[in-house]
DNA sequence: CCGATGCATCGAAGTCTGTCAATATCCACG
DNA sequence: CGTGGATATTGACAGACTTCGATGCATCGG
């Protein structure tokens, strides 16, 4: 159920303004879903399917993971809003949620200043205390 | 030392083609650095600084984390190639590495087909077996 | 109604991670 | 050289994560 709660939450900018504790938590959960080899490959394989979707039985083989493990990872990705699940008969089909992936990309948008500049020479010492 | 080893490795596309085990591992390490509330806030605060850089003593306060914890997170981010560290006198200044962040953004580029389409109504049942 | 099949959940083992106190290291300044 | 301040490293601990076998649940076919 907390699936789309984050759909809006992930419309955040990491590098444009200081992130509050809650916003950072939300984004961290999103990136955490991508921080696993198996899950990245799941996304990758699903995106590579002709129809853009795949069911669990298509994924256990190529990834070399047990079925419960695959199911678990798909759950994590779905709860992060990156995948959508649709049950058709006995099978459960998963597909990407492009909007959510785009939102994560946007979260990493660089600030205008930094975009072009690589290094500045002599930044002044900020006031400690 | 393994800092720029990944700089090239993260020039990968998650959603354009099936990811191999090693490539996925590499990318997962990159995203893992972003998968923490504290580290996201560190990036955020550093990016928000006037000069685009900050030293440790500027960051422990706003984040409410102990100095060793901040140092640890900065290390993780630096080893992921997202931050660059420069020592000036007693202080260590950290700044973003825009190229690396852009690389991570690119890794999430959507496949052309999925880019425009949000959901298709009746995906045909894939051939199981 | 029954058996088979695909998927989800549970429970457990082993590993990794975030956090901090204590301590070490590095550097500037007398 | 010795002192003090800023940062890095170490050690330890609680909590979370990955993985899989076993099991439960739902659905299709007959």
3D structure, described in words:
By secondary structure, the first copy, chain A, is mainly alpha-helical. Chain A has one domain (21-118): Winged helix-like DNA-binding domain superfamily/Winged helix DNA-binding domain (Arc Repressor Mutant, subunit A). Helices cover 52% and strands 12% of the residues of chain A. Chain A has helices spanning 5-9, 21-34, 37-48, 56-63, 67-79, 98-107, 112-116; strands spanning 53-55, 83-88, 91-96. Chain A has a 3-stranded antiparallel sheet with strand order 1-3-2. The N and C termini of chain A lie far apart (44 Å). The first copy, chain A, binds a DNA duplex (30 and 30 nucleotides) through α5.
Summarize it.
Chain A is mostly helical. Chain A is 52% helix and 12% strand. In chain A, strand 2 and strand 3 form a beta hairpin.
Key descriptive features of the protein:
129 residues, disordered N terminus, Arc Repressor Mutant, subunit A, elongated, DNA-binding, 7 helices, homodimer, disordered C terminus, mainly alpha, 12% strand, three-stranded antiparallel β-sheet, 3 strands
């Amino acid at each position: 159920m907390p699936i789309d709660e984050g759909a809006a939450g992930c419309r955040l900018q990491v590098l444009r303004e200081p992130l509050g504790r809650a916003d950072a938590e939300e984004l961290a959960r999103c990136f955490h879903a991508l921080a696993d080899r198996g899950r990245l490959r799941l996304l990758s394989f699903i995106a590579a399917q002709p129809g853009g979707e795949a069911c669990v039985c298509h994924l256990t083989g190529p990834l070399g993971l047990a079925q419960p493990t695959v199911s678990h990872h798909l759950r994590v990705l779905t709860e992060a809003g990156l995948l959508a699940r649709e049950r058709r008969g006995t099978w459960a089909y998963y597909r990407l949620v492009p909007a959510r992936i785009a939102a994560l990309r946007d979260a990493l948008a660089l600030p205008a200043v930094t975009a072009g500049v690589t290094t500045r020479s002599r930044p002044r010492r900020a006031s400690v205390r």
